[in-house]
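Task: complex structure prediction.
Instruction: return structure tokens for all chains below.
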Amino acid sequence: MAKKPLGPVRRAFAPWENPEQQPFIEFRNVTKRFGSFVAVDQLSLKIYQREFHALLGGSGCGKTTLMRMLAGFETPTEGQIFLDGQEITRIPPHRRPVNMMFQSYALFPHLNVEKNIAFGLKQDNLPRSDIKRRVDEMLALVKLEAFAKRKPHQLSGGQRQRVALARSLAKRPKVLLLDEPLAALDKKLREETQIELMNLQEELRMTFLIVTHDQEEAMNLADRISVMNSGHILQVATPGEIYEQPVSRYVADFIGDINFFECKVTGCRPQNGGASITLHSEELGNEIKVKAGHPRMIGDAVTFAIRPEKMRISFEKPLDPSLNTIKGEVWDIAYLGDVSIYHIKVSQGHIVRTIVANTTRLVERPISWEDKVWLSFDAEAGVILSQ
Amino acid sequence: MKALKKDWFSITSLVLGFSFLYLPIVILVVFSFNSSKLVTVWGGFSTKWYSALLHNEQLLSAVYITLRIGLVSASIATVLGTMAALVLAGRGRFMGRTLFSGMIYAPLVMPEIILGLSMLLLFVAVDQARGFWTITIAHTSFTMCYVAVVVQSRLAMFDQSLEEAARDLGCPPLKAFFVITLPQILPGVLAGWMLAFTLSLDDLVIASFTSGPGATTLPMAIYSQVRRGVTPEINAICTIMITAVTLGVITISLLNKQAHTKKQSSATIRAGS
Amino acid sequence: MTKNRKMQNSHHGRRRSWTLIAVPYLWLSIFFLLPFLIVLKISFSEQVLSIPPYAPQMDWSAGWDGFKAMVSHWSLDNYLWLTEDELYLSAYLSSLKIAAIATILTLLIGYPMAYSMAKAPKGLQPLLLVMVILPFWTSFLIRVYAWIGILKNEGLLNQFLQMLGVIDEPLIILNTNIAVYIGIVYSYLPFMVLPLYATLEKLDNTLIEASQDLGCPPSKTFWRVTFPLSKPGIIAGCFLVFIPAVGEFVIPDILGGSETLMIGKTLWVEFFSNRDWPLASAVAVVLLVILIIPILLFQRHQRKSGEVLT
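Output:
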């Protein structure tokens, strides 16, 4: 695989911003019930051609059911599913131009690597030479040429994962479904494989849909992420938007680390397109100045959310009047190598977490336990969430 | 549509298969209540064949002997079989391990007629008078292998680290076995005992070889009557045996189910943590 | 694990494991292995009218010389007789043939059953399993006996078929090989269904899904995935039916007729009617030699599939 920078391509790719663009996959008001349990509830979602889309959520959120409905293993109780302009809601799995890479890999234990990859091709009654060529191509793609004759149980976990990938790509499906594809790999291999998957998707110009519970994986891989909970999609957006502008407390909390403060809106005035809002927090005993996208009603109860890395700590109170400042005391420090997490106790006994990058090798901590410190952040650092 | 088609196939094959398995037994039971002496012509309901059994001294003594042999041989076989299962499940090496496991597994598939013949020739060679004890020993020898297999499968499910934990906490080995391992594998041991018991009750061939004067077991008595033709009286005794065994099997499967659910719930707890 | 135990408490542990091994080992050696050696020994003897009805006897008082004297009187006459008299050869061949055909029939009936059981709702499966096992616990003799009333000329099957008007004359089934096939299939069906069910039930459902995902319709998925993966169960089931069926005595004796030639019956007659113990022993030894191959194959297969599973 050629290693070329993907940045420019990625940045330019945003078909969802174009209202004219036809979706490649569409779930339209899809509901799936198992007995009385509602796994997917009135869900609609559009995914575009060549998009790398991630369904992210905890276990039981409905993400796997949603994917299995696209593969054809489950039939929606209500609603429709479209693929490339055609309705596929009730088409059995073996007639769908969609292939899936299973979490368990589901490699056929009685067939060797080559035959596993050729399995789907044989079904299409292709000439033998074509099958051979395609299998070789796939083996080369996942760099397993030397293992063609091995049985699955003779392979390592990473190799099995690649066979599964090659097998699901061999038929050149319109959509590749990846069900927790990297869950069984160790951290290092997982990171390598993530990069390979991204390169592969770029190279094959295919639509990928991944199901994962790992937010880092979703952020790393996907063009867009659907955050799911109890059968609903809470937010569909790019990783950056999801991280910086979560729409709800659940999304904000699910992705990354974050501090929440219950506040009341005390002031609001419009400011070039958005609003400049003042909040008061009982917990902090402080005023917070926030630049927000849209105005809020004075007196509303809201949640202010700010990520730990958006705050700084210092001994002296910063002089810049535009900054929000909070007084506190260092309560605990967790040293993680690259960063340290400081737990700061603020006036009401509330604990605020903040991250400090360890930019120098510290023999002695400049800021240590029980030090009196100031937390500061600017007006754009956090977001206001409705309660 | 697709699921329905598959279901019909399943339902048909299960219904046909189980009818094949059960119809002969059901017919046999039904005709044990037939008042006619002709076994295949229904002559009205009657329990007279059951009362006739009560006066058949020969059959009653055969029942008594069979039960005694069954109880004694099953009990010895359970002890020996459990020991053998522990040996098989352990990973320790010893001389002739292959021979040992061969001697456990071979009797499971070996024709009974060979087992019976060889056992008899052993008793003849040591000039042992044949009767109750020779049948009991013969039954113990082949049923212990079944016990070993049943208990071993139970042991395979058993978390060995439990016994190691007990040993680590200072429990001597024998005590660790009785306090930790045995309660865990008890359903298997009980199932093994039941299996040994019914196999002993059931056996015709080995008993025929190893029995002597005065030691006629129930299957031997039934066999000699069967050769003379089908009678409602045999149907009646068969029905009693089937009922007894069915009750036993239901008890065991309940025991096993209980142990199984326990095992499962503990597994879920472990998986959840 | 064992290593650990030995390190912790080597003296104690070793003593325990020795008695543990020794008791069942000794028992099986005396009551299983030794008898075979005796059968082997007697197969070299000749029939005499005495108690016990064979000679030579071992003269224990003469010690080693007695043993040598006995060995010098051994002969292969019984084995020669087995090859000379066509009855035995055809009995062996016919047993193998009957067992093989019956095994295939059992597989044909047992596979759909096991497959459907594995497909059945999870809650129903334990019940179905007990229902398969239950007949196996009921007396073999009784189950074989039950077929007499069904199969005989004025039996229930013929009554039923005549009532339906399918046949005018009763079918003659009892005392033929057909009755023997029915008896074997019936008696050994649980042995086929259980290992098949065990493999089919363990079969990872995602493999079936993967096959369908790759474009295989359900029927093809069965032949390309399910069936090959159930091979260990098929092999185990076939061995479990075939091996004991070869030496079967009760079924051919009760259901078979004069045309039914099976080696178990021949042995029984030789032993009980003709009281020719040495010849019966030779018949048993040859039968064992014939069966030892499938038995060893079976054990190897069990060990291998066990390894793959763990």
